[in-house]
């Protein structure tokens, strides 16, 4: 039989979750709302911040940090998110993270900003999931947001020893 470490003591704890995003024309903002709704459906209570309203010193207060980004110019991260990128690259705490974003397949580097965040977060945090959506998200993307949210929460639970490790 599998042993569940400290399961009873830990299952009542809800992880603190920050979703920090930038959006110029509203696509990533809509996707952010869908990701937040997906987390709420799974019992979580995310705090949602437009990046300019987020105090980078608060990064260490969160168990899970999710980044929402559009892509700019040749696959670049928008300027507003540069400070967040650097703060996450150098933070002492190692949160569970995820990155999602919108882009346009017309450009050579589709959702390049998601890839840039993914590579950095993979190296410096416990990266749980990524999600890319083309332009404005539709109702069909709801299931993908659910899967993203589930991956993030499952990774958190595994990391905290709330669930048995899987072989996958
Ligand atoms: C000047 C400009 C450059 C862009 N460059 C890229 C790009 O390199 N890769 C990409 O996938 N999308 C690119 N896009 C598309 C945007 O990332 C896409 O429309 C996104 O959904 C906008 O998100 P927002 O509505 O949250 O601002 C570009 C858009 C503009 C206007």
From TrEMBL:
Cofactor: FMN
Domain Flavodoxin-like span(s) in chain numbering: 17-153
Domain of life (superkingdom): Bacteria
GO molecular function, one term: FMN binding
Presence of keyword Transport: yes
Key words of the record: Electron transport, Flavoprotein, FMN, Transport
UniProt-listed InterPro entries: Flavodoxin, Flavodoxin/NO_synth, Flavoprotein-like_sf
Residues making up the signal peptide according to the UniProt record: none
Transmembrane segments: none
Family that this chain belongs to: Belongs to the flavodoxin family.
Function: Low-potential electron donor to a number of redox enzymes.
Entry protein name: Flavodoxin-like domain-containing protein
């Amino acid at each position: 039989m599998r042993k569940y470490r400290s399961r009873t003591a830990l299952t009542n704890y809800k992880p603190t979750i920050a979703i920090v995003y930038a959006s110029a024309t509203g696509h990533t903002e809509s996707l952010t709302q869908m990701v937040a709704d997906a987390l709420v459906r799974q019992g979580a209570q995310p705090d949602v911040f437009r990046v300019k309203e987020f105090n980078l010193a608060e990064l260490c207060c969160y168990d899970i940090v999710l980044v929402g980004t559009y892509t700019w110019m040749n696959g670049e991260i928008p300027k507003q998110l540069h400070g967040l990128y650097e703060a996450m690259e150098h933070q002492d705490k190692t949160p569970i993270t995820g990155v999602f974003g919108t882009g346009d397949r017309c450009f050579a580097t589709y959702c390049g900003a998601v890839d840039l965040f993914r590579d950095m977060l993979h190296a410096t945090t416990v990266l749980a999931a990524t999600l890319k959506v083309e332009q404005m998200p539709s109702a069909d993307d709801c299931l993908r947001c659910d899967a993203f949210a589930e991956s993030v929460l499952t990774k958190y639970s595994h990391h905290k020893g709330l669930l048995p490790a899987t072989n996958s």
